[in-house]
């Protein structure tokens, strides 16, 4: 018996429809050799997984656990495609695949086996129409945002960076030539923790996405037939993060914006600024409590954004931004320094040498990185 299935981004193909005169979708599949192969109507599925990072690893782990669960019979075959890495051990997905003895291919090699469905999570490569058509049920994408909001490679970072209060995970079906525009098969939302980092949020979303993926695979044909197109309104893009994003703009950014930036990218690349023409990295930012803000030293003078004052009682550096103060516990200037070390080594000597100078002259300044293309190194996806 030959089973006809829907083309991976077109309307469903009815069973037995067009006898004697195949539909255009079926003719496309037939040209790829599917006319003589058996396409499964139900699990267990043969899956090819595409992924790279820790977020993707959670989805791969769920697929592997499902394959090992012989009672449920959801996954029959599981193989992995990842991208090259400078590290000999490879990216997290490769490490997990090696540990679990799963077959691995390195992009653009995708093997030559037969599969029912592909799964993508944090892969960062556009997949061609020819590749998508190799999978009778298409390729699913586990995307950590509520599409169409935050299409692109860094949705979790931009969720935190822009202060979103709600986010979620979308299981969608991939279309060729463009990222994150295919029909939505399943979408769930969660509140964003007010003080959480992007790394912490990603861990939560990775577990949610893995569970949602298994749920979709259990009812794959039904999920595909019930897919809905993404809304045309509300689409936003989440581009990759560059080194320039980490440069604090003291005159332009509020304390809230700087803390969001720190929570969004601080674990990937430290925030940067200038101190006396030297680049300094801000390693540990803290909010400043109201009792510190009431200190006459902070309220009794005109302040310029970037002004730095050491607060001895709390042992933090206070830095003035567009609207208020932020606290810095440690910095990197040649080596890691606590706020007290920085005061003793740099601030205190500066005040002694410049006893007649105003405190506003002792300040951090916005770092402007070169605009040459070779300087725009991408540091996160």
Automatic annotation (TrEMBL):
**Domain Formyl transferase N-terminal positions:** 115-217
The EC number on file is 2.1.2.9
**Is Transit peptide among this UniProt entry's keywords?**
yes
Q: Which domain of life is it from?
A: Eukaryota
Q: Which residues form a coiled coil?
A: none
What is stated as this protein's family in its record?
Belongs to the Fmt family.
The places in or outside the cell where this protein is found are: Mitochondrion
Q: What is its main location?
A: mitochondrion
CDD domains assigned: FMT_core_Met-tRNA-FMT_N (cd08646)
| Primary role | Methionyl-tRNA formyltransferase that formylates methionyl-tRNA in mitochondria and is crucial for translation initiation.
* Annotated ranges, domain Formyl transferase C-terminal: 240-346
Q: What is this protein called?
A: Methionyl-tRNA formyltransferase, mitochondrial
Q: Which reaction does it catalyse?
A: L-methionyl-tRNA(fMet) + (6R)-10-formyltetrahydrofolate = N-formyl-L-methionyl-tRNA(fMet) + (6S)-5,6,7,8-tetrahydrofolate + H(+)
User: From the UniProt record, which GO molecular function terms apply?
Assistant: methionyl-tRNA formyltransferase activity
Q: Name one GO cellular component term.
A: mitochondrion
Q: List UniProt keywords, sorted A-Z.
A: Mitochondrion, Protein biosynthesis, Transferase, Transit peptide
Offer one Pfam family short name for this entry.
Answer: Formyl_trans_C
The record's gene field reads MTFMT
Q: Which SUPFAM superfamilies match?
A: FMT C-terminal domain-like (SSF50486), Formyltransferase (SSF53328)
């Amino acid at each position: 018996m030959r089973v006809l299935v829907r083309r991976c981004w077109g309307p469903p193909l009815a069973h037995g429809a067009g006898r004697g005169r195949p539909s255009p979708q079926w003719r496309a599949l037939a040209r790829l050799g599917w006319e003589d192969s058996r396409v499964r109507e139900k699990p267990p599925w043969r899956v090819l997984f595409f992924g790279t990072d820790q977020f993707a690893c959670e989805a791969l782990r769920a697929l592997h656990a499902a394959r090992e669960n012989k009672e449920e019979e959801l996954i029959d075959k599981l193989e992995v495609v990842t991208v090259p890495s400078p590290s000999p051990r490879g990216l997290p997905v490769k490490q997990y695949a090696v540990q679990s003895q799963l077959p691995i291919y390195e992009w653009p090699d995708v093997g030559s086996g037969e599969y029912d469905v592909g799964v993508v999570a944090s892969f960062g490569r556009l997949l061609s129409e020819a590749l998508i058509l190799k999978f009778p049920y298409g390729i699913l994408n586990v995307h950590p945002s509520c599409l169409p909001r935050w299409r692109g490679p860094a949705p979790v970072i931009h969720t935190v960076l822009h202060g979103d209060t709600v986010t979620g995970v979308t299981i969608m079906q991939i279309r060729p030539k463009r990222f994150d525009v295919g029909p939505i098969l399943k979408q769930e939302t969660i509140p964003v923790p007010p003080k959480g980092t992007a790394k912490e949020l990603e861990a939560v979303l990775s577990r949610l996405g893995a569970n949602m993926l298994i749920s979709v695979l259990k009812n794959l044909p039904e999920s595909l037939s019930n897919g809905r197109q993404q809304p045309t309104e509300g689409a936003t893009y989440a581009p990759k993060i560059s080194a320039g994003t980490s440069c604090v703009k003291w005159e332009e950014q509020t304390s809230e914006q700087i803390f969001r930036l720190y929570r969004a990218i601080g674990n990937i690349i430290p925030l940067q600024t200038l101190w006396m023409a030297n680049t300094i990295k801000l390693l540990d930012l803290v909010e400043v409590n109201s009792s510190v803000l009431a200190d006459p030293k902070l309220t009794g003078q005109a302040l310029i954004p970037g002004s730095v004052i050491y607060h001895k009682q709390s042992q933090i550096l206070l830095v003035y931004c567009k609207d208020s103060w932020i606290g810095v516990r440690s910095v990197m200037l040649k080596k890691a320094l606590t706020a007290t070390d920085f005061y003793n080594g740099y601030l205190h000597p500066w005040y002694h040498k410049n006893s007649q100078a105003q405190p506003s002259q002792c300040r951090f300044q916005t770092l402007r990185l070169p605009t040459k293309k070779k300087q725009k190194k991408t540091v996160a996806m």
